[in-house]
Amino acid sequence: MSRTELAPAPVPMLTVIVPVYNEARTVDESLQRLLAGPYAFPDMEVLVVDDGSTDGTAERLANWTQTSGVLILRHVRNRGKGAAIRTALERARGRITIIQDADLEYDPAELPELIEPIRRGEAQAVFGSRYLRPAAGASLQRHGISQRPTPPWTKFRLAVSILNALVRLLYGVRLTDEATCYKALPTSLLRALDLQAQRFEICPEVTAKLCRLGTPILEVPIAYHPRPESQGKKIRWRDAWDAVVTLVAWRFRKLPSAMRAASFDAVG
Question: Of 221, 217, 223, 224, which is closest to residue 203 (Cα–Cα)?
């Protein structure tokens, strides 16, 4: 190698995609928790997509542009969570990808529960379930996370239960939390799904296509800190309807030829 030739950058093990829209109040703490978590640069890269925020989020993210392993991307106008994830996925270099919301509802300290089964070759798709009780809390306690009660019944949990039932009816797959943000997959598999969603229907699209491919989904219990609409929660009943439409549509829609032909190697 000549003196002027640069060595290729190491391929990170993990890509964390952080879609952000009007989260000026929480985005700094979210990124701090993520970078202080169990994975770090260069094993982890963080791709933040500011989806056209108008509340000062962009100014806060400007302070992170020089942070190693953090890449800030931006949509000029708001296009939706799905569009933000797809923008970041084009730049992802990690062997495994997971989504991390910037609203403090999900704890990055729990990422190993989702990532390590894929690294060990025990699973290809791992979902973090907010409604699956951990066995004696042992899994969470390994990472210093106290066991928390299952979230109470709310209109959001009711919507998730309906979606779970629809997944079982349409695809024959039993899940306890189809709508979880925490979905970890090999990056090659996530790209091969040829995602098309623009908004929150990205979650049911991922679930539907994995089911159509026959990819087993491993669920692991996670803690969850729900926030009310008064603190900025953005998902609405309309999004639940969009999720229903997405699950039904992808049960019968023809899969892209590239997706049908794709073969997926286990992540070592």
Answer: 217
Query: Can you tell me whether residue 87 is helix, strand or coil?
Result: helix
The span from the CA of 181 to the CA of 99, in Å, is: 6
Q: Which two tokens stand for residue 139?
A: 């899994």
The separation between the first and the last C-alpha atoms of the chain, rounded to the nearest angstrom, is: 28
**What 3-state class would DSSP assign to 182?**
coil
Tell me which CATH homologous superfamily contains domain 14-260: Spore Coat Polysaccharide Biosynthesis Protein SpsA; Chain A (3.90.550.10)
Q: Which residue carries 């699950």 as its tokens? A: 247
**Residues 6 or more apart from 58 whose CB is under 8 A from it?**
50, 74
pLDDT tens for 41-78 read: 999 999 999 999 999 999 999 999 999 999 999 999 99
Q: Are 118 and 127 in contact (CB under 8 A)?
A: no
The DSSP output letter for 77 is S
What average pLDDT does the structure give for the chain?
Answer: 87
C-alpha distances in angstroms, 63 versus 3, 33, 84, 90, 250?
33, 16, 20, 23, 40
